Amino acid sequence: MLGTKERSMAQEMVTFTINDREVKIEAGKTVLQAARSLGVWIPTLCHNPALEPEGSCRLCLVEVEAFGRRRLATSCGYPVAEGIKVYTDTEKVVESRKVVAELLLARCSDNQQVRELCAKLGVTDTPFAKRHEDCILCGLCVQMCHQRMKIGAIGFAHRGFDRKVETPYGELSDTCITCGACEFICPTGAITARMNSGKDPVKHKKEFDQELAVRGNIDIPFPSAVPLLPSIDRENCIHFQVGKDACKVCQTVCPAGAIDFEQTDTETELEVGAVILCPGLERYNPRVRGELGFGRWPNVVTSLQFERILSASGPFQGTVSRPSDGRHPHKIAWVQCVGSRDQHNANPWCSSVCCMYATKQAVIAREHDKSIQPTILFMEMRAFGKDFDKYVERAKNEYNVRYQRAMISQVREEAGTGNLIVRYAQENGELIDETFDLLVLSVGLEPHANAKELAEIAGIELTERLFPKTSPLAPVETTRDGVYATGIYQSPKDIPETVMQGSAVAGRAMALLAEARGTETKPKQVPPERDVAGEAPKLGVFVCNCGINISGTIDTKSVVEAVKDEPNVTHCENLLYACSQDSQEKIKKLVAEKGLNRVLVASCTPRTHTPLFQETLRDAGLNKYLFELADIREQCSWCHMGRRETATAKAKDIVKMNIAKVRLLQPIHTESVPVTPAAMIIGGGVAGMTTALALADQGFEAHVVEMSDRLGGLAATVRKTLEGANVQEFVRSQIERVMNHPKVKVHLGAKVQKTDGYIGNFETTLDNGDTFKHGVIVVATGGVDYQPTEYLYGQKENVVTQRALEGMIADGLPKGKTFAMIQCVGSREEPANYCSRVCCQDAIKNAIAIREQDPTSKVVIFYRDIRTYGLREDYYTKARELGVMFVRYEVDRKPVVSANGPFIRVETHDFLLDRPIGINADYLALSVGLRPHPTTEETSRQFKLTRNQDGFFLEAHVKLRPVDFASEGLFLAGLAHAPKNLDETINQALAAAG
Hints:
Blueprint: H1 4-11, E1 13-18, E2 21-26, H2 31-37, E3 61-66, E4 69-74, E5 85-87, H3 91-107, H4 112-120, H5 140-148, E6 155-157, E7 164-166, H6 181-185, H7 193-197, E8 204-205, E9 214-215, E10 218-219, E11 231-232, H8 238-242, H9 249-253, E12 275-277, E13 282-283, E14 300-302, H10 303-310, E15 331-338, H11 354-368, E16 373-378, H12 388-399, E17 402-405, E18 407-413, E19 420-425, E20 431-436, E21 438-443, E22 445-446, H13 451-458, E23 483-485, H14 495-512, E24 539-544, H15 548-551, H16 556-563, E25 569-575, H17 581-594, E26 598-603, H18 606-619, E27 627-631, H19 633-637, H20 644-663, E28 678-682, H21 686-697, E29 701-706, H22 727-740, E30 744-748, E31 752-758, E32 761-766, E33 771-774, E34 776-779, E35 783-785, E36 799-801, H23 802-810, E37 818-825, H24 839-853, E38 858-863, H25 873-881, E39 885-888, E40 896-900, E41 903-910, E42 915-921, E43 923-928, E44 930-932, H26 936-943, E45 970-972, H27 982-993
Parallel strand pairs: 1-5, 12-23, 14-21, 15-16, 15-21, 16-17, 24-25, 24-26, 26-27, 28-29, 28-34, 29-30, 34-45, 36-43, 37-38, 37-43, 38-39
Antiparallel strand pairs: 1-2, 3-4, 3-5, 6-7, 8-9, 10-11, 13-22, 18-19, 19-20, 31-32, 32-33, 35-44, 40-41, 41-42
Helix pairs in contact: 3-4, 10-11, 11-12, 14-21, 14-27, 16-20, 17-18, 21-22, 21-27, 23-24, 24-25
C-alpha cells in the first residue's frame, strides 16, 4: 500500500511528448529538467538548479506545442503539462540558438567557455561587431548573492551597453563576506570574489592530504573512510556562519535528499563489560622548530605530507613533486628526530617509527624516479624490528640511499630557486652547508591535546608524559580494572607491534567477558546465493593500479585493453585501489547490473585480499568461490621493477591464464564442523605460559609442552626489566598459575612426536606417551643467548655477558671501579644480521644500576647505535645524566680487546674526537644477541612451517598477520618469532590467544 507521499507523487505524473516520444514525468518539473532526466541535451549557460530560472541566455530555447499553438520557449522555466509536445532540435530551434550564440560570441569573443559552447552549436564566428567582455549578464551571481547567500553585496548597474554587475558605487564592499559563491556559479568566469571585497575566499586545506590540497565545505574525509560518506564542515559552511536560512544550495540539489541542517549530535549510552582505549597519537607540530623552516619555506614538508605526495590518490597523483613549483626534486633529505628525543622544545621519547618510514619513503622515491638522490640525516638508526636492518642495508646498496650522521642547526632558502640550504654538524663537529631540492621532516608522535580529559572520563591514571600508566608485565592493563590501553596510545610503536597489541587487548577483554561470550552475537545478513548453474560464464575482470605499487611498473590500461575481448569477459576495467570500500561497492553493483557470475581481480597478494573479495561476492549474491585473484604485484611488478614492457607482457599472460581458470570455476558449498576447544602450546617460557593462561581464562583447555624439566624459559635468568619490574617474581607467579589452573595441563620433559588431524581438530602424541586433542597450535619455542667466542670471552673471568653482570649486580656489586660494555656482540652482522632488540636496554639497565650503587665508578659503553626506542629513551637520558659514557664504533672498526694484567684493555676509534682511545676495565660486559631456539628447525619440519634466513619463524604477513602462520590454525608468539622485549613477548602471547 502506498503512503500519502507516494500516492500524491503517483497522482502527479503528467504525460507529454518530447521529440515525438511519449513520456511520463512528475508534475512541477520544467521541460529542461525532464529533458535532462531523459538524456536529451539542451544547451544552457545561465541555468543552475539551485536558483529560480531566468532564461537570460536564451540558449535553452525549444519549440512547444500547446493549446493549438506552436512557439519558441525557454525550457528552463517552462513547466511540463499534460498533452504538450516539445521539440528540441527542429530547424527553427537550431537557427534560433545559432542567432543567440552569434550574439553571445559577439559580446564575449575571447571567452573560452562561450567559444566552446558556440562551437558545439556550429557557430565559430559572428556577423556582429565584437566586444571583449566575459560577462553574459545572465544574473546568476546576483541571484546567488541575494536569494541564497542573503547578503546582497552585488547587483546590476547602468543600462544598455553599459549594463554590468558590480558593487554599490563600484567600491570594494564591506558587506561581501568573500564566500566565493558568485565566482563558483558564474558560467564564464567573469567575476571573482576579489573584485567585490578585495580578498580571496579562504581555501580550506584538506586534512587527509596534510594541507597540500584543498577541499570544499562538504567533503569525504579520505578515500577509505568508514562510512564512505561526505560530511559538512559546520565551522566554515556559509549556512551555519550567516544564518538567516542562507545558502542551502547543497540541500536543494542533492537528489537523495540526504542533507538535514537540523541534525545535531546525539549521545548514546552503552552497557559494556570492558573498555578499550585506542585513540592513537597525533603528530608533532614542526613549526615549533623554527630553525627547520616548516611553514616558512614551501619545500620543507613533513613526512606525512611526503607520504601523500608519494600516494597515487594524493595531491600530485603519485608524482614526486615540490609543493612550491611542481618541479621534480633530485636531491631530497630526510631530517630525523623532529619532535622526538629532544628535552627542550619537543618530546623526550623516541617515536619508534621515524627511522623506518624515512627509509621506506627514500626507497619508494627512488622507485618513482631513479634520478632522485635521497639522504637521511640522522643521529642513530633505530632499525630494531624484524628484518629492519636488512631493509636499511638494501636501501643503501640497491637504492643508493645515503645515511649521514648529523645534527641540524639551520635551514634557509636559496634565493630564486626554492632550494634549501641545510647547515648541519657532522659527528666530528665539522659544520657542513648542503643544498637540497626538498626537505622532509620525520616528525614524531605525541599524545592528543585532550589526553587528560579522556583519562578523566575513563577513570585511568596517566604518566607525566601523558601516556596511560601500564606495567611492562601487564602492558595493556591500565590503573582501572576492565579498562585497557592499546596501540600507540599506550606507547609509540610500529605497525606490527600495534597490530599484536590490538589482538592482545582483545584477548584480555575476552577473558574478562568469557561468561558472556556469544550471548549477543547476530549472524550477518546476506542475500540468497544466486544459482548460476546452466548460465554461460559472464566474467567481470578488474585490474588494480594499487597506486604505483602495480601501475608504476605495469601499464594496467594496456592490460585491460589486451584482455577485455577474451571469451566470456562481460566487463573489464581499471580500479585505482580494488580493495577500497568504493571499489567493493562498485563490484557489487556491476554484478547486479550486468549479471556477472564470476569475478577476477588482478591485484596484489591473495594471502590477505582473497577473503575480502570473496566476502564482496557473497554480499552480491554469488558463491564466494566464483572468485579468483591474479597476483600481478609480487609475481610481476615487484620482481620486474624497471622493466615496464616485460612486466606488462607478463601481467597480460597472468590475467589471461586466470581468465581461462575462472571460466571453469564452480560454486563450492561449505559446512561447519565442530572444533575441539583446546590448544597446544609448544614452549613453556613467558610466551607459552601467557598464551596458555589467556586461553584458559577464556574457558579453553591449554596443553603446554615444554621439553625441559622446568617452566620459565629465558626470562627465568632475567632479574628486572629496564623499568625496574621484578621479572623473577613475575615468572614464579606465572608458573604457579599455570601449574594450578584447572584448564591448563603442563607436559614437562616432553616433545611432540606426531600431530595428526586438520584445522580445528588435531590429535598430538608426545614422546612420553601422552596423547590429547586440540583445535589450534601455538608455537612459542623461545630463543637462547648467543654464546660469544670473541673479546676474550671464556678466557678471562672478568669478561662476562650482560645477563651474568645483572646477576652479579643483584647479588652485590662486583669488585671494580671501571666497567666497559660492548654492544651488538653476535648481532647486526653476518651470520646474524639483525638487531636483537634487548641488548642496548640490558646495557643501560646495568650501567644505571652500577652508577647508582657506586657513583664513583666509571661505565663506558661502546656501541653502534643505541636503540632505546619508545618510552625507553628516558633511561638512555638517565644513564647519560648519571655519567655513563658512550663511545660509538663502526662494524669495520670494532673495539680491540686484550688482557692487560688484571684489567681488560678496550681500544677503538672515537668518531667524536676523531682519534683512537683506550680504557683499562675491571670488567668487560658483552651485550650478546638472541638466537632462535635450536628446536625451531625440528618444529619447522614437523609442522611444515617456514623460517627466515636467520632461523626465526615467518608470520603470514609482517604487518597484517604478525601472530599467524600461513597455515590456518597455527600461531606463533615470543622469541620464536623474532627478538623482543618482555612486554612485547607478553603482547604477542596475548594476541595469539586473542
